[in-house]
Structures are given as C-alpha cells and as structure tokens.
Specification:
elongated; single chain
Amino acid sequence: MDIILTNLLIFITTIVAVLLFIRWRTHMAIQKLLNHPTPDFIAELPQHPNGIVLFFHHPRCSSCKQVAKQIDHIATTASERVFKINAVEESSFTHAFGIRITPATLFIKNNTVNEAFVGAVSLQKLRSLLQPDPQKPIL
C-alpha cells in the first residue's frame, strides 16, 4: 500500500511540475514579445492609430482553429485592424517576432508590441484590444 501511495505522489508531483514548467515557459515567451520593436517590413501592413492585431496560426493546430473562429468574428467589424498570419507560409513574420508557439496573438500600437497572448484568447479580450484609445479624440 505504501508503494502505491508513494508512486501516486510521485506521479502527481511530476504532473504538477510539468504544468508549472509549461506555464513558466509561456510566461517567458510572452515577456520576450512585449515591447518588442516591430521589424521594418511590418510597414507593409496597414497601420491604424488605435493599433492592429496580428494572429499567428498553424494550419494543423486545433487550438488555432478555435481562436481563428473568434478572430474571424472580430474581423467582421474591424477587418482593417485584424490580420491572420499563417506561421508556415509567412515564416519571415514568425521569425522576426520570435514566435515559436501557435496560436499567438500580438497587439501592435506605435510600432511596439503592447500585448501578447500565447494560446487561446477569449473573445472579450480580443474585443478589448480593439477598443478605441480613450485618451485620443476620435476624428
């Protein structure tokens, strides 16, 4: 009985350690992206005074497909501010931003990454990114 409990405790401890490690790596990836200056070729994309959203996805990623539905929903109202980037086809964008995990969502304003999300993002969070800046008057 003691051996079973010991093995169970080791198993649970290992699972918790792996989950904490994954969370730490995700946090570190996000911190690396924040305040990252945008590469020069980002100028190819249309800019917006309230910022743009870049969504990096992989065609075979199931989480990417779920977030892509939310991105498509958001894009119906703000298509000039939301861009979906296929990580395989647009590898230059992916490498320039240091994206290693998909789905990844970046909010860029004033040529700087202001918000970064790795993994699934809620629809509310995406909408909040696209809200107009209250400090700037709407022209």
